[in-house]
Amino acid sequence: xxxxxxxHVAVMLTLAAVLITGCGGGQASTGxxxxxxxxxxxxxxxxxxxxxxxxxxxxxxADHPDEQITAQEIPAGSSSEAVIGASIAAGNAPCLIxxxxxxxxxxxQKQGGLVNLSQSFDDAAAYIEDRSGDLAxxxxxxxxDYFQIPWKSNPVVIFYxxxxxxxxxxxxxxxxxxxxxxxxxxxxxxxxxxxAPYAIYPSPTSQFFQIDIDFYxxxxxxxxxTPLVEDGKATFADDAGERVAEFWRTVYDEGLAGDEIxxxxxxxxxxxxxxxxxxxxxxxxQDLDWGSVPVPTSKGTPADEIWTFSDAKNIGLxxxxxxxxxxxDVVEFATSPEQDGKLLELxxxxxxxxxLAEVYAxxxxxxxxxxxxxxxxxxxxxxxxSPNAVAMLQKLRDAYTGAVVFGNGSIPDALRQAAxxxxxxxxxx
Length: 429
Prior knowledge:
Layout: H1 5-21, E1 39-43, H2 47-63, E2 69-73, H3 80-90, E3 96-100, H4 102-110, H5 117-120, H6 124-132, E4 149-153, E5 157-161, H7 162-167, H8 180-193, E6 198-200, H9 215-223, E7 229-230, E8 233-234, H10 239-253, E9 272-277, H11 281-284, E10 290-293, E11 308-309, E12 313-317, H12 324-334, H13 337-347, E13 350-351, H14 356-359, H15 361-366, H16 371-376, E14 380-381, H17 389-405, H18 411-426
Parallel strand pairs: 1-2, 1-3, 6-9, 11-14
Antiparallel strand pairs: 3-12, 4-12, 4-13, 5-9, 5-10, 7-8
């Protein structure tokens, strides 16, 4: 589950190239929502998801001798998105891919690679919305149709090193990190005391996806869940966006975070006392004495009201699939309460399911390290659902890197210029 910096950069740079240059559609589909029979699926190649996927396929196949699933790891390539884009262009995508990034969905849709679930299956929209609740609307296109099934998320929070906080004279059980002022004072205490070289070390690089780990979670928290783009317009060049950017600019101006690439894991290596992470971090940092809190807000929003970034992966049903009726039945099976529970148990990732913390209360009681993530899943925001999503995020990241990380120019001007560019991109097909 851990996002290794170098590998993630390579993957997402390739995704950028695919999304910017990809065009055209796949072969015309011969499939139909009424057809049933054998199907193929791809799932992620990480160990935990493989375990989940194999047991799901085994359970389905045992009860459906005439509708068998053939499953495999997503083929090797420079990125999953590059592989999927190529398979759409060639017309040989599998029926289902349990590793579809929301940032790529609109481009895959533009390529003609994804089935319009809302129009193909009478119960699809109701099923998606009943399972995921109000969050589902973030995954619909501009017409309100679903070309993806919201599946699982990795909502990001702040992890902090309790030993470093104690060394800096801070309460490790009730860390003062709720407001921007508290966070900055704590960060100064950490650095001034020598407890760690830096208080926190988000990647300062300019790749578009980095905006999801620093600016976006805090913007979501500051605004009560406002996405970066809403109704075809950028939202972030507002007072809340300026407060978030000014907060991070202070962090960089005072040397509380590093402004150079760190080749490694700054939190694990003791270079930083805090990190912005998802639930994958529970297993990764099990040797550290850590605590977790939601991301801060300017006025200290209560924890149970704070929003953050989802870092979701979803399920796509692809138009090359012949037996689309079976594929949809498998979707419902794979996202059932039983299989969502197994996903939670085997991977530690959070199903995008309504009332997750209540539905799986026993799991969270037995695994309290995941409890905060379970609660946080109810309040997450997603990337823009646009074929130009990568370009939009890149415009914002470029503005952020220049004005915030390196302190060049005016933050309000930088955000307004980025917003104007995003508005232009949002208006393009």
